[in-house]
Amino acid sequence: MDWFLQQLINGLALGSIYALIALGYTMVYGVLRFINFAHSDVLMLGAFSAYFLAPAVEKILPLPSIAGALIVVLLSAMICAGIGMLIEFLAYRPLRSRPKLTVLITAIGVSLFIEFTCQHPAVLGADTKPFPKLLTENDLHFGGLVIGSNDLVIVGTTLVLLASLWFVVQRTKIGTAMRAVSFNQQAAALMGININRIISFTFGLGSALAAVAGILYAIKAPGIDPLMGVQPGLRAFVAAVLGGIGNLPGAALGGLILGLVETYAGGTPGLSNYRDGIAFAILILILLFKPAGLLGKATVEKV
Amino acid sequence: MLTRQLFILGSLGILLSGFTGCNKSGGDTILIGEFASLTGKEATFGTSSHEGTLLAIKEINAAGGVLGKQLELKTEDDQSKAGEPANVVNKLISKDGVVAILGEVASSRSLEAAPICQENGIPMITPASTNPKVTETGDYIFRVCFIDPFQGTVMANFALNTLKAKKVAVFTDVKSDYSKGLAKFFKEGFTKAGGQIVSELDFNGGDKDFKGQLTAIKSAAPDAVFIPGYYTDVALICIQAKQLGLNVPLIGGDGWESDKLVELGGAAVEGHYFSTHYAADAASPKVTAFVESYKKEYKGKVPDCMAALGYDSVYFLVDAIKRANGTEPAKLRDALAGTKEFDAVTGKVAINAQRDAVKSAVILQIKDGKFKFLETVNP
C-alpha cells in the first residue's frame, strides 16, 4: 500500500512538470497550429538563466528563500520570454505564409541549433552543472510516505499557472484576440487585430512558462546540462497530444497521466526498462481510437 | 549547373585530402592517437584521463623521449556520444597515421572503436574501460585497468563481509555496457557467496527522475543498494534516495569517482562506498611522486583514478615500444601482450591471455566531501 501511495505522489510530482511544459506547447499550437519544438530548449535556457542569475540575486536577497527564488524565476521568465519572441521573429515569422511543414522543420532546426551551440565549451559547455539551491527543502513524512516540499511547490505552481493561463485566454481582451487569431488569421486581421503582436505575445508567454518549468525541473533534479530539455520536452509533447493538442486542461491531464504511467512502470521490477515504450504505446492507442486526444474536439485540419 | 561542378570539385578535394594525409609518423617523432570524452556527459572522466596522458607524454619527452624520438599526441574529442568514436578513430588511423590509440574511459565507446583498431592492426590501449567485451574484440586491444568480473566480485564481497549486508538491491543503467556488466558480475558474486538480491530495477543514463524505481527498491527493504553507474546519474539517485528515506549504504564502482559526484550530490552522497583503481592518499612512493607532479602541472588539483590510468596507459605503451625496439604494429602488439610486470601508479600490472590487466582494486568511502581510502583488494 505504501508502495502504491508513494508512487502516486512521485507520479503526480513528475506529471505536474510534464503538464507545465505541455501547457506551453499546447498554447502555441492553439494559436499558430504548429509545434514549437524549440520549447524544450527554451526550458533549458530558463534553467541556465537561473543558474547564472542566482549568484547575482544572492548578493541582494539571501538564497535559499521564497522571495529570492521568486525574483530568480521572474527574471529568468522575462529573459526567456525575450528569447522566445526573438526565435519567433527571426525563424518563424518570415515563414508564416509558407506551408506548415516548412515551419515545423525550421522548429526542429532551431531546437538543434540551440542544443548544439550551447554544448560548445565557449557557450555553456556540455558537462552537467550543479543547480543552486533556491528553496529550502522540508520533506513531510506520513508514516512511511514522504512528500517533498519541492513536489508541493511544483504541483502548486502548475495549478496556479494553469488557472491564470485559462483566465488570460478565456477572459481577457488579449486572450480573445489570441482565440480569434487561432480561429482565422485573415479575418482577425480584418477586425483590426495586430496579428504580429498577438503571436509575439503568445510566444513570450509560452517561453516564460517554459522557463518556470525548466527551473522547477532543475530544482527537482539539481544537475543541468544543455540537453536537459530533450527528454521532458518529448514527454510534454506526448502529453499535449494525449490530452488533445491546443487544449489547456487537456495538456495538464495528459502530463499527469504520463507522469503516473512512467512512475508506476518505472517502479515495477521487470517493467522499469520499458516505461518509455509503455508511455508511447498509450499515445499510439489514444491516437488510434481517439485521434483528437482525450479532451480535444475532432476538427477538420486544413493543412 | 555551377552548383554541380562545385559539388564535384568539393568531393574531389575531400578525397584528395584523405589520401595525402597518410602516415605522418616516422622521422623524429612517434605519433600517438587519443580519443576521449572531453565534453559531454562523462567529460570529467575524459578530461582527467586526458590530463594524465598529457602529463606522462610531457615527462617522457622531457627525459629524452623514446628510442631517441619525441612523442607526439593527437587528441580527438568524441563528446561522450555514441557514433563519434568511430569517426574520430578512423580519422586518427587513416588520416593522421598514428602508431597506437589510447582511449576511452567509457566501455560503450571503447567497444565502438575497438573493431576499427583491430581491422587496421593498430594497437589500442584503453585506460579505464572495464567491460570484458572490450578486449574480446581482438588481439590488438589492451587495457591497463581491471575488469568488471573482478570489480563486481570485489563489491559483492565488500557488501557481504564489511557491510554485513544480506539483502541487496541492484539498480542498473540499461544504456551502458559498463553498468550492465558490473551488475551482472556483482549479482553472480553476491548470490554465490550466500547473499540475496531482493530487487532489480533499471534506469536510462541521463534520466532525471528516479523516484519510481527508488520507491520500489525501498519497499523491498534491502541492506544496501548496488548502483553501477556514472557520477551524474548517481548523484541525482543519491539525492532522491535520501528524499525518499532510503537510508542504507549505496555502493558502486569506479564510475562514481569524480569531484562532480560530490559537487552535484552534496550531503546526499556522504558515507557511501565505491571501488576504484587507486587512492591518492595511499602511501606508496610511486603514487606520491605522481600526485606531486600532477598537482604541480594542474594548479594543485588532486588526480583521480582516471588521471592515474591515463598516465599509466602512456607509460605502458612506451614500455612496450622500448621492448619492441620500434613502432611496427605487429611487434608492438607482441611486446604489449608480453608485459609481465609493469610497475604502474595504479599498481603492478601483468597482462593475461585475454589482454586484460591483472591488478588490485581499492575501496573508497565518501567522507566530508572527500574520497577516503578504506581497503585494498587483491585479485
TrEMBL record, chain B:
PANTHER family, A to Z: LEUCINE-SPECIFIC-BINDING PROTEIN, PERIPLASMIC BINDING PROTEIN OF ABC TRANSPORTER FOR NATURAL AMINO ACIDS
Keyword Signal among record annotations: yes
GO terms of biological process kind: amino acid transport
Alphabetically ordered keywords of this record: Amino-acid transport, Signal, Transport
Lineage: Bacteria, Pseudomonadati, Verrucomicrobiota, Verrucomicrobiia, Verrucomicrobiales
InterPro entries hit by this protein: BCAA_transport, Leu-bd, Leu_Ile_Val-bd, Peripla_BP_I
Cited CDD domains: PBP1_ABC_LivK_ligand_binding-like
Domain (Leucine-binding protein): residue spans on this chain: 30-369
Domain of life where this protein originates: Bacteria
Protein name per Swiss-Prot or TrEMBL: Branched-chain amino acid transport system substrate-binding protein
Stated family: Belongs to the leucine-binding protein family.
Keyword check for Signal: yes
Pfam families: Peripla_BP_6
